[in-house]
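Hi support team,

I've been running sequence recovery on a batch of backbones for a student project. Most finish fine, but this one hangs at about 90% for roughly twenty minutes before it completes. I'm not sure whether the input is malformed or the queue is just slow. I've pasted the structure tokens below so you can try to reproduce it. Let me know if you need the job ID as well.

Thanks,
M.K.
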């Protein structure tokens, strides 16, 4: 079957994949080399690329499960299996996709080592051991939609109210950090009051969700804000610095567990449903 030329599109998708992968890396992480490969190249000699991050643009050959499919080239001399963490919509046979992910030689142990959170819902015996498989981190369509990107439900009114309160905390905390002497003390009174009220306002949220760790971190942060108010009243700048440090530690502990930073720089909750 004749297919349209996708050379230009493949280049465009490869650039987009590279940018997407760069966005997903922490800013202090070393760059990851992405190896563009053809399906037949991988099937013919996969060993040099095992463990590498590869990108492949090819047609869908077969649908194996809701989150797994195989890719083939026009020769259809073989197909390469792709397993995604999730797919926001089903892929269709013969659709052209660009897949980015880690190449492994399939085994249950290898999947667990590289992709512990992937839902492997393949029929028994669908993939033989030591068969090359891509564990996808991105599955791009020809319209630049990443099917492997998780679609998040809108935040509830409760979550939106919580987020609104939390947005008051960061600027108040930053202002408090700058209050290091008598000249800046007057400017710190407002931020301290903001922090005291904000942590009092968010405490019921964690109580309703039954999160003992977050409850404790919120209490620690509120206590630190109270200590900052006392230190400010006494012009105790060393005490102020200690309160700011404790406040930052409490916030960071909670953010690590419950804040999910998205690619666009915004934040969402995580682990609330567990």
């Amino acid at each position: 079957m004749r297919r349209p030329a996708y050379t230009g599109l493949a280049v465009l998708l490869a650039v987009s994949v590279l940018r997407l992968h760069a966005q997903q890396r922490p800013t202090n992480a070393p760059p990851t080399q992405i190896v563009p490969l053809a399906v037949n190249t991988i099937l013919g000699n996969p060993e040099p690329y095992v463990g590498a991050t590869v990108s492949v643009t090819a047609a869908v050959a077969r649908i194996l499960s809701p989150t797994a499919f195989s890719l083939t080239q026009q020769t259809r001399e073989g197909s390469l299996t792709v397993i995604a963490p999730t797919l926001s919509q089903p892929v269709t046979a013969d659709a052209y996709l660009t897949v980015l992910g880690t190449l492994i030689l399939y085994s249950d142990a290898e999947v667990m080592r590289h992709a512990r959170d992937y839902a492997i819902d393949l029929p028994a015996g669908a993939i033989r051991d030591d068969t090359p498989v891509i564990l996808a981190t991105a599955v791009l369509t020809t319209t630049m939609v990443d099917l492997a990107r998780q679609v998040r439900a809108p935040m509830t009114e409760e979550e939106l109210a919580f987020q609104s309160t939390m947005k008051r905390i960061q600027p108040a905390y930053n202002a408090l950090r700058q209050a290091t002497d008598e000249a800046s003390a007057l400017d710190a009174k407002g931020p301290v009051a903001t922090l005291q009220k904000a942590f009092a306002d968010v405490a019921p949220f964690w109580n309703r969700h039954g999160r003992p760790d977050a409850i404790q971190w919120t209490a620690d942060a509120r206590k630190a804000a109270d200590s900052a108010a006392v230190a400010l009243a006494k012009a105790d700048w060393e005490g102020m610095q200690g309160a700011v440090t404790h406040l930052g530690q409490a916030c960071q502990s909670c953010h690590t567990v419950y804040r999910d930073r998205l690619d666009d720089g915004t934040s969402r909750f995580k682990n609330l449903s567990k």
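--
Follow-up from support: It reproduced on our side and the slowdown came from queue contention, not your input. The chain has two domains: 7-140, 157-269. No action needed from you.
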